[in-house]
Write a structure and sequence with these properties.
about 45 residues; mainly alpha; Adaptor protein ClpS core domain-containing protein; ClpS_core; Ribosomal_bL12_C/ClpS-like
């Protein structure tokens, strides 16, 4: 987790596009509900 603080981003996993999009939405929703200013994004590699 310190990688995010030091480098500004971190890799959470490599998934197929549809799975990545679903996980992205889940993370955003959970962070918002908990009041955390977490930003997640899906990036093609």
């Amino acid at each position: 987790m310190l990688q995010v603080h030091h480098e500004g981003k971190g890799l959470c996993g490599i998934y197929q596009k549809d799975i990545a999009d679903t996980k992205h939405q889940q993370v955003q929703n959970l962070a918002r509900q908990a009041g955390h200013p977490l930003l997640s994004m899906v990036e093609e590699v």
